[in-house]
Structures are given as structure tokens and as C-alpha cells.
Write a structure and sequence with these properties.
With 87 residues, the protein is an alpha/beta fold. It has a single domain, classed as 3-Layer(aba) Sandwich (D-Maltodextrin-Binding Protein, domain 2). 20% of the residues lie in helices and 21% in strands. The chain contains two helices and five strands; from the N terminus they run E-E-H-E-H-E-E. A five-stranded mixed β-sheet has the order 3-2-4-1-5. The longest helix is centred in the last third of the chain and has 9 residues.
């Protein structure tokens, strides 16, 4: 998951840009990644919205703060923003 710096300031809404992946995300809002991203912030009162876009566009959207989060970023890429990882 790649987050822009703007995502760290106690958001009331989160905008996710991501590519369509079978079983993980769909334009209809179904899939493992989208369900997980809704389950975490929504109980805390944070609204979640998303847009399915091509991978390179999601990178550009996060890098220019047009999206708060993108899913599926490759850690080997040089993407302006912040990667979140857990051991």
C-alpha cells in the first residue's frame, strides 16, 4: 500500500486509486482489497471512496496528492510518497 503524505493528517475521508484485479478489486466495489480498506477506517468515521484506474495513473494520482492511497504498488519502483510495510 502506498500512501501520500496528505493521508497522515487525521482524515475524515480517504480516496483510493487502484487497478482492477480479479478477486481483489472491481469497479462494483467488490473484492478483498476494497473490503479490507473499508473495514478499517469506516468504523472510525472515515469515509472511503475509490476509483479503478490503470496502474500508472494510480501512481501519478498518489504522487500528486490526487489520491490518498493506492494498492498494489511495487516496492522496487521509485514512487514519490511513502510506503507502508510491516515485518
Amino acid at each position: 500500500m502506498l500512501c501520500s503524505i496528505a493521508a497522515y493528517a487525521a482524515p475524515t475521508k480517504i480516496f483510493i486509486a487502484l487497478d482492477q484485479w480479479d478477486s481483489y478489486s472491481s469497479k462494483e466495489g467488490a473484492g478483498y482489497c476494497l473490503e479490507l480498506m473499508k473495514e478499517v477506517p469506516e468504523p472510525a468515521g472515515v469515509a472511503v471512496s475509490f476509483k479503478i484506474v490503470p496502474y500508472r495513473r494510480s501512481v501519478e494520482m498518489v504522487s500528486t496528492n490526487k489520491a490518498d492511497v493506492m494498492l498494489g504498488a511495487y516496492s522496487c519502483e521509485k514512487i514519490e510518497g511513502a510506503f507502508v510495510s510491516f515485518p
